[in-house]
Backbone:
């Protein structure tokens, strides 16, 4: 691996650059003068010593001259994170290194660690070009990334209501807060699940446990609340752990790899989720709040679709028409199970009869089948 | 197989080795119409049982894997020699739009024409865009056509007022089947707006066909119920060995022959003066899931078993006769014997073409075999076919102690698709 990387770098730059490649952290000082890119962050600016540089191993020397703690990101055009450095205090210096292919990127400084940051476009030259993508798709991915982050951010206070009730031993309060605490997660489940280590801790069901695995997370608490009807010390500990795990997700979700294709496939996977676990009532077998998850899954899928629609509708107008129709149809079907269309207070799934479940299943199939063609429509 | 040889010789000169050639299949077409019959005689029935290869050895039709032609005056899968396996599905039409229903029927017709010829659906099962799911599900790749036939039917509910504007076209003979004594029908496994009967000699080919049609239908029609059948219980080839049902008795000895054009015209095909011009050349299908109380039956003495049927278990000969095909003497049988009660002579001549399959859907929660007969019967007029026979059986049949009808459905089966521009149900919707 290293030999290959070296040859790329030597072709693109001078022999002096070798030092940067062979020892990225220890030799950083010696090369900073000529190799590193200076990033001067302040409360209202994000200055770069150069905005065009060669592909390969890249180092940023960051100095925070502002008054707020800042963060610096190197981002793909769709806002996916290439590399990031957090918690850069006022008056401090930090280094950020990354392996970068040729293409267009952005550097973002985030004074106060909030918002989308102060952006600088940068161009990386040489090496293999990353294929250019329709800017509309980049915009879709960037908007979806924002949505995913927003869902995770919004989950924290809702989860807190739930875990506070657990901590207080308040069974009824916890029951009421359970389903709402899952909505953000369910809307973005494929992204959440892309972190292989988080999902098994937060969303696993009893039947999904591996041998020796301790059952933690929402469904473990669901069983305690609805089946056992009590909160013990064990549950209180699990509530704390769930808060920690979800906070971890909220923090990392921005680094998920998202592409137009993965968005489209994620939408399809959300419908698969519904078909596999919600239609059957397996997901929420104690709380019977399956329709809340169902609704959230559909909403997440619809969000991804709406963002991809400008491209999908151009490439495959008939597909877009069908998807519009089927999303509307499933929404209308779900609305029959809640009195207030702005509430997530859905009929308990154990009260939904076989023939109604069959109709919901038919609706899911009717949407899932065309949705499975969305990825191809945006990949054209 | 010895009784099939004559027919085999007559039919197979151009079928030699032809698993993909249309020749052997064309033979099966013979049952479909006068023109075909004029060409070739005993061929159809015989070809089913034996198609001769180059080497001169008789090969059972099921082993040839040949294709049955999709296009013709009548739909295949009725007079066609009965294949070994069944996958039957009933659908609810979920769209309210007549145009979408018509489009579905056209899409289905196109897919059926391909699959019965042993081809994949749409653009195939692989080689397409990496991001897109393949059109075809793929499990039939590399399998022969396996004499797959796909036969569509339209249920009474399709003609309901306020749905697709078909209320004026509902045939009188497409009756709502009455509840018979002892019926214990599960509504979730009964009825349906549409049905598709998939028969093939390879079960995977039949299942693939229904699966792909169901997938194509999503958003327009949804599977309401379906049934797998693993063994034919009736044949339309009287010269071949009669298959046995799950009770161990030969079934279908006196069934309508798929090559008997006169009998088919009289008892199976709807005529042009029967009141529903769009259905001319079609038929009516009754489908009933008949659960057998297998364990109770197995504990029944041989004499009683034979009395219940009115035939002996080994040879299948009618009571008092030596051979299976000897003319039954009904009065020699017990008054409640199944064969006696079902015989046309006991029902003013009512004759139906049976095409049922044995099923075993595992066991029930009590450890009993969930097995029986998936009864399929085609006829020209249900009121002169299934209904009088079943009224008689439901009231009097000794077999009722060992069986229970648990589902029921009726469908008008349109005529065949004539060519590439035609589609299932065109006459109904035009």
Residues:
């Amino acid at each position: 691996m290293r030999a290959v990387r070296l040859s790329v770098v030597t072709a693109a730059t001078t022999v002096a650059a070798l030092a940067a490649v062979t020892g990225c952290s220890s030799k950083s000082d010696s090369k900073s003068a000529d190799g590193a890119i200076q990033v001067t962050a302040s409360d209202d600016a994000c200055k770069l010593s150069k905005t065009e540089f060669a592909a390969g191993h890249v180092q940023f020397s960051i100095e925070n001259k502002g008054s707020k703690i800042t963060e610096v990101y190197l981002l793909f055009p769709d806002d996916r994170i290439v590399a990031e450095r957090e918690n850069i205090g006022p008056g401090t210096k930090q280094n950020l290194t990354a392996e970068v292919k040729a293409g267009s990127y952005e550097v973002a400084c985030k004074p106060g660690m909030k918002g989308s940051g102060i952006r600088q476009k940068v161009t990386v030259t040489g090496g293999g070009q990353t294929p250019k993508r329709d800017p509309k798709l980049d915009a879709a991915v960037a908007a979806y990334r924002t949505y995913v982050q927003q869902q995770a951010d919004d989950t924290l206070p809702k989860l807190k209501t739930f875990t506070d009730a657990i901590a207080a031993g308040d069974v009824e309060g916890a029951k009421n807060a359970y389903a709402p605490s899952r909505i953000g997660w369910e809307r973005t489940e494929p992204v959440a699940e892309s972190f292989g280590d988080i999902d098994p801790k937060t969303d696993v069901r009893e039947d999904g446990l591996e041998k020796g695995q301790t059952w933690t997370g929402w469904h473990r608490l669901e069983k305690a609340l609805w089946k056992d009807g009590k909160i013990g010390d064990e549950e209180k500990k699990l509530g704390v752990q769930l808060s920690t795990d979800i906070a971890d997700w909220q923090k990392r979700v921005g680094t998920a790899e998202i592409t137009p294709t993965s968005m489209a496939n994620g939408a399809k996977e959300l419908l698969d989720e519904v078909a596999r676990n919600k239609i059957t009532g397996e997901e929420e077998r104690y709380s019977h709040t399956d329709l809340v998850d169902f609704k959230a899954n559909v909403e997440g899928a619809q969000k991804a679709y709406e963002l991809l629609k400008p491209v999908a509708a151009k490439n495959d107008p008939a597909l877009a028409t069908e998807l519009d129709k089927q999303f509307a149809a499933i929404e209308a079907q779900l609305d029959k199970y809640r009195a207030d269309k702005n509430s997530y207070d859905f009929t308990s799934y154990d009260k939904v009869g076989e023939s109604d479940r069959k109709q919901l299943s038919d609706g899911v199939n009717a949407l899932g089948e065309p949705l499975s063609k969305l990825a191809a429509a945006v990949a054209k | 197989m010895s009784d099939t040889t004559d027919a085999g010789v007559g039919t197979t000169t151009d079928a030699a080795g032809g698993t993909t050639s249309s020749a052997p299949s064309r033979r099966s077409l013979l049952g479909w119409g006068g023109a075909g019959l004029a060409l070739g005689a005993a061929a159809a029935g015989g070809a089913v049982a034996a198609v001769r290869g180059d080497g001169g050895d008789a090969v059972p039709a099921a082993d040839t894997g040949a294709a049955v032609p999709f296009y013709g005056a009548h739909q295949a899968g009725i007079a066609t020699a009965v294949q070994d396996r069944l996958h039957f599905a009933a659908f609810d039409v979920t769209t309210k739009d007549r145009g979408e229903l018509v489009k579905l029927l056209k899409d289905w017709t196109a897919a059926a024409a391909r699959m019965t010829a042993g081809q994949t659906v749409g653009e195939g099962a692989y080689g397409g865009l990496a991001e897109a799911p393949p059109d075809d599900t793929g499990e039939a790749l590399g399998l022969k056509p396996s004499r797959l036939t796909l036969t569509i039917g339209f249920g009474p509910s399709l003609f309901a007022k306020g749905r697709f504007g078909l209320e004026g076209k509902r045939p009188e003979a497409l009756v709502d089947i009455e509840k018979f004594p002892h019926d214990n029908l599960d509504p979730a496994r009964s009825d349906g707006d549409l049905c598709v009967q998939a028969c093939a000699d390879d079960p995977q080919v039949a299942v693939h066909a229904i699966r792909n049609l169901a997938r194509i239908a999503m958003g327009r029609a949804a599977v309401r119920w379906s049934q797998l059948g693993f063994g034919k219980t009736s044949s339309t080839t009287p010269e071949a060995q009669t298959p046995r049902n799950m009770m161990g008795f030969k079934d279908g000895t006196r069934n309508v022959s798929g090559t008997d054009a006169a009998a088919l015209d009289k008892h199976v095909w709807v005529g042009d003066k029967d009141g529903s011009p769009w259905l001319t050349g079609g038929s009516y299908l009754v489908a009933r899931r008949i659960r057998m109380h297998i364990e109770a039956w197995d504990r029944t003495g041989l004499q009683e078993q034979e009395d219940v049927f009115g035939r002996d278990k080994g040879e299948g000969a009618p009571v008092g006769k030596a051979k299976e095909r000897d003319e039954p003497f009904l009065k020699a049988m017990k008054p409640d014997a199944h064969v006696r009660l079902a015989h046309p002579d006991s029902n003013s001549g009512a004759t139906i073409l049976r095409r049922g399959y044995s099923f075993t859907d595992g066991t029930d929660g009590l450890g009993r075999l969930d097995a029986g007969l998936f009864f399929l019967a085609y006829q020209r007029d249900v009121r002169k076919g299934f209904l009088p026979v079943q009224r008689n059986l439901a009231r009097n049949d000794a077999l009722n102690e060992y069986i229970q009808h648990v589902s029921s459905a009726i469908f008008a089966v349109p005529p065949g698709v004539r060519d590439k521009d035609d589609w299932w149900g065109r006459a109904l919707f035009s």
